[in-house]
Amino acid sequence: MDTKKIIELGGTITFDDLSHLDQLIDISMIVDDLKEDLFQAVFPHEQIIDIGWYPEFCENGTFRVSLIKAYDWEHPIFSDKAKNWKELHQVIFNTLNKLEI
User: Fold this and answer.
1) Residue range 21-49: average pLDDT?
2) Which pLDDT belongs to residue 101?
3) Cα–Cα dist 96/48, whole Å
């Protein structure tokens, strides 16, 4: 998780259970820690990046990264999925590039 980049872009981390997870081990080993609410950061212009695991606690789930604007959770500006840590880092990078700055 690139918290430095989030802060550089004007973000404030409001919730973070993601960075405490051991990203050096296989996801199947920490499935009991993978829940819908893992990370959230707020940005200027009423933007939120939200990261969760869906379905939670399921080994066959995926990370979902969503960019929300004006608290419209039903219609994210951008949303993508990742199956592993490497994909998650790429999806977060792509999401940060979608921010309105």
Assistant:
1) 95
2) 83
3) 10
